[in-house]
Amino acid sequence: MNAVPELDLLRLEGLVSSYGVGELIRYWPASAGIENSNYFLSTVRGGTEQHYVLTLLEQPPNAGGGFVPLLDTCVAAGLPVPAVIRDLRGLPFGELDGKPALLCPRLPGRHVFNPTLRQVEALGRFLARFHRATGGGAEEPGRKLPDYPRDLRWLERRAAECAGYVGFDSASLMTDARTEIADALSRRDVAGLPRGPIHGDLFRDNVLFNEWGLTGVLDFHHASHGFLVYDLAVAANDWCTEADGVLDPERTLALLRAYHRLRPLTRAELWFFPVFALYGALAFWTSRLVVALEKRRGKPVRANNPEEFERIVRHHRAHFFYLDERLLEVG
User: Fold this and answer.
1) N or C: which end of the chain has fewer CB within 10 A?
2) Pair (127, 254) in one structural domain
3) What tens digit of pLDDT does each residue of 69-85 get?
4) How far is CA 133 from CA 75, 265, 284, in A?
5) Domain range spanning residue 243?
6) pTM of the prediction?
7) Helical segments of 144-266, H only
């Protein structure tokens, strides 16, 4: 989305009244999302002002029918995620301007773009708690989530769409990275790595902090069932990477150690962490290229810079790094 559209006030008031959260006193657009439109709402009920976030889904969430149960499970486990408010009929989804609507309490905090080590550690602890809370039982939300959609076939199909729009060197890099990932995913020991619900998009702009710590994790629309170590690698690529695409060792180890203390990583997960970091970087480089091409063709979308992840892919391909499990035992 390039801009958040204005809403019809009477229709919005009607939607808010269907939730029984009080009288709408004001609303304003949140920052423009790439896929959905978000609004901050303030209501008053019993003399108390309350604050919410309204999300209009421009397209169905990748998580499908597992989206709301996943959030419900996280809330029940005490995780700082948005609680989906049901309307007076007990339904999680409303409708506004022909689009599905979700209403959640507004979580406190703000985004950070130069995270400290303590903030990176807090993220690692959250991710471990999330994986533990949502995995394991017969009612596991992951059983209702689709498999991670950016698999090898997706990478190949999207790369073909980008053919002719990237230079020879970049195209060769994409092919080589895809081959390395395919080789790893074909191994039996990789196929046996722990799986479960993953966030899949745990970037800095989806996490909130205040002066006391991590206060919220947002945007579970891309949640799916996949390798748990992939979720960790995606986070590392955004939270622990320098501007030139190099993973900062101190922040990376801080993330992994904090995670490991709550959900111990297996030796195989540590061994294959570098290739999953490459996998995550290639997936987001490819997706950003596709969106950039759509914008080039005139589609009104907000495109992030693909070159950021090209640098990360290039670094991961050029510099193999080994994670010794003994490193996680320090501190």
Assistant:
1) C
2) yes
3) 999 999 999 999 999 99
4) 10, 16, 26
5) 117-329
6) 0.93
7) 152-162, 168-185, 188-191, 228-239, 249-262
